[in-house]
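[Automated response] Your request has been received and processed.

Submitted sequence:
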Amino acid sequence: MIQEFKDFIAKGNVMDMAVGIIIGAAFTAIVGSLVADLINPIISLFMGGTDFSGMHAVLGDGEYASMAEAEEAGAAVFAYGRFIMAIINFLVIAWVVFMLVKAVNKTKKAEEEAPAEDPGPSELDILMEIRDSLKK
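Generated structure:
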């Protein structure tokens, strides 16, 4: 059983998947920073200084200056701004993955359409040439 497990882990598909998950986690951090640090300020600029991540509604009684203060007090918070940020993150990640897949497919298609190298005459062609030259 241990040998079967080792064989399973050693297969290329499992290793490729593991590498993909690790790269994906790192990529998610990069996209999160891209959205939070670059895209949000631009959106905020066009929205008149609105910061999506802080948008919320307190469900129930109480007045709180910020979402963090409401959460700290244990109030029920409807944090729709975080949801908007999650949608923006998803769209950015989906766009980048789409572009990567498109580039990979284009590369594969170019490789498939590349003319095959001329392998030269076949064995049959050479034998026929030898036969013809012996007839002369």
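Summary generated for your ticket: The radius of gyration is 30 Å. Residues 57 and 78 are 5 Å apart (CA to CA).
If you did not submit this request, please reply to this message.
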